[in-house]
Queue: 4 jobs
Job 1
Amino acid sequence: MTKTLIICSSFSAAHFYHQKIWSKAENQACFGKCFATYGHGHNYCFEVGFRNPQSPPQNLQKNVMQTTDLLDHQHLNFTISEFKDLIPTTENIAKYLLKKLQEACPNEPISYIKLFETKDLWVEIRI
């Protein structure tokens, strides 16, 4: 029987969308309000499902929180090296968090992650 432990963590971060090779007008036309000099912020919610976890739940909670703390109160475009040239979309942030969490919990099978940028805008990765 498969048991899934669900753990959630939240963080706040700022970002903006832009393509470095495009002009300001091209970025504005493509990304609209998501392209701004200083960006905008979100209160993200990160949910992780661990399949048949071996570690105590409090240890997994600590690992999830340490992973989201990497992004908490950061401007992703400026302070997170992975997003210097990669647009920090919800999908790309989710992939970043998944990679960091897998590094932090190498022996714990993750069944899925969900990252909510807003209640209506989220991404899910099933593994």
Job 2
Amino acid sequence: MTDLKGKHTLYICYFGLRQPLVQTQVIPYLQELAATGMRVSLLTFEPEFRDTWSAEQIEEKRVELLAKNIGWEALAYHKSPSAIATAYDIFAAARHIRKHIDADDIDILHGRVHVATLMGALARKYSKRKPKLIFDIRGFFPEEYTDAGVWPEEGTLYRSAKRVERWLLRQSDGFVVLTEKAREVLFPGSKESCRDTAGRPVEVIPCCVDLQTRFKGEQTDRETQKSKFGYEGRFVAAHVGALGGLYLTREIVDFLVAARERHPDLFALFLTQTDPGPVTERLKENGFSENDYFVGRVEASQVPEYLEASDVGLSFVKATYATLSRSPTKIPEYLAAGLPIIANPGVGDVDELITDDGVGVLIDSFDRGSYFKAIDDLAALGDISERCRETATRRFDLKTVGGPLYRRLYDRLFCNAGD
């Protein structure tokens, strides 16, 4: 094993620090790396930077992150016009990173997704010092945009993104993917050695949860939790995360309508940053009163409490080539709260998880018959809360799964072979 103490990694994240994803899926991982003795720095991109951050808030957050052994810097995120704004951010960031590579003795550039990795690759290309480059792929980015209808299939933007992706795959020294299916697509035959054909390390690291601090993994009385939110005696179906695009809002509501025929007391819980308008309108159209649902944003720290007051977690995502690479964050969160899952097949490794571990039900198709069958099959499983928590611990614990796999990847970057 390589001694990582003293090595300096710069994690490049094309999101804002306050976004829940950064709070739950970036900072906890960086803390795990910092625990090895590495120097850890984080670069984020803040929307409306000047208007939403004061000098005092910036300094306060820097001090807070330094207490976690993470250095933090931020650049402004530019939104529109989309392609031009992103190109501006890429080249501005590359210049910024290049200056820091030599000044701060950067050993590793860790890019989260394609855009951030491109920033690091360009910075390294024009720098005298050549740090290692990690491509944290997270998803099939070009296909996600075409599948969601943002880009036309085989259009100029898609073809340009694919060229960039191929270049990044050649330039990078190590890789993270979220699912076994993504590993097989991008790096066939790498499962046994955890290396690609060029000998570069490849790790499958699903989205994990912090079971020690955020989700305690303790047996919680669900009815007691429900009373905190006024859900006593109700069957609570929860959805966490975005709505629209690849996330099937219409199908989720249609499922809830069917579920109400089995559970007339059903309460629909949507914890989302997405505009609540479309989903609340559809719920009302289908007979849900304002006492039958909650749609809105809560702090990341509050999500566990809401899930522990729920009975089932829903994950309905459009199944496409792109979503083979997806590891929905909501899945380990549901399991950590002891929630069984109802999901559709064809998304990442979710099918195998539900089938092999017996932690929920897969729907056959998006129709009433399949919805009724899923609800009845879920009831037949009985109370599987403990099984769900055990699966979360075994497969998705940040401390015993996510953190060690990141450390192993970093170690392999500085080793010629083997573990």
Job 3
Amino acid sequence: MADLKIVSATGKKGGTYSLSDVLSQASIPTHLFHRAVTTELANSRQGTQSARTRSEAKGGGRKPYKQKKTGNARQGTIRAPHYAHGGMALAVKPRDYTKALNKKERRLAIIGAFQAKVEAGAVIVVDKIEFATPRTKDATALLEKAGAGSARRILVVLEAHDTNS
């Protein structure tokens, strides 16, 4: 079992908190991290890009010039892809990029990421978080006292919903 040190809201170190075996000793395949990250990134894409094809470009309702006796190649419309202001060949259209990840795989990937943070020493257990009023200034002061002030990203997990925390 992994033991984490408990820090009080004032920054004093208290007892230890032991993690369960599920969180501390599970062996997680590394490909699950890749699948979880690519799924998250793919699901965050909007997929709203769109370009006009030759049928959607404005104009070009008649032949630009007659078929024969001009010496030029045959043309049916000036909105073909090789003309200026013509439609795009093989234009991109809106599509859905979402991917699915099994619940067990997702859970294992989260446990593995948590294990990596524990091994790196980036997990802090604070005994009690409470504020008189919900203010960012108070929250940042508490995080700095607990030792997480210089971290770039911080995830705070609470036991129960609290409107002031």
Job 4
Amino acid sequence: MSDRQKAILVVLITTREFRWHAGAITADGLAVPLLRSDQANLHHYTELESDEQVSFLRHRLAGVLQRGCDRLFARHMKANHFLLIADGRFVEADPAITQRLADHFVQWMINPPITYIIANPDFEIHSADQIKVIAGTCLPEVTTVLQTGLPGLVKQIATPESWELITRPKNPDS
């Protein structure tokens, strides 16, 4: 396992489109697109009560992290940090949902460490002061890699064929 290249597994959450993209950023800033959801993949939470919203989002995003780790493994890479980066707070949800979800991930997923960030709607981060951490810690080395590799990852969102499409399960609760 030690011969695997370390990478940050990044999940970009587009809250208004109810979708996500998962990719990796290597220590030298190389952006590696991995997975993307179909349109409205996360929409089901809007139909649920507050506690069920957190449960649904937690389950769905944990699945994204697991699939992302599987894809990294196939590329001889290993996640040394998880970053969940949302372009805002979850819409059509209890106002506390985003914080509750972020806190849950940080409390329950300790290896590798996880950080939940709120970014601009276009996911641009040009300086460390633009990184709004709402749960977890963003160490200086993670911030540097993020600033270097995030623009390349975001740019590739416009090229859907660069990402493996993960469609919504038939049962929306899973």
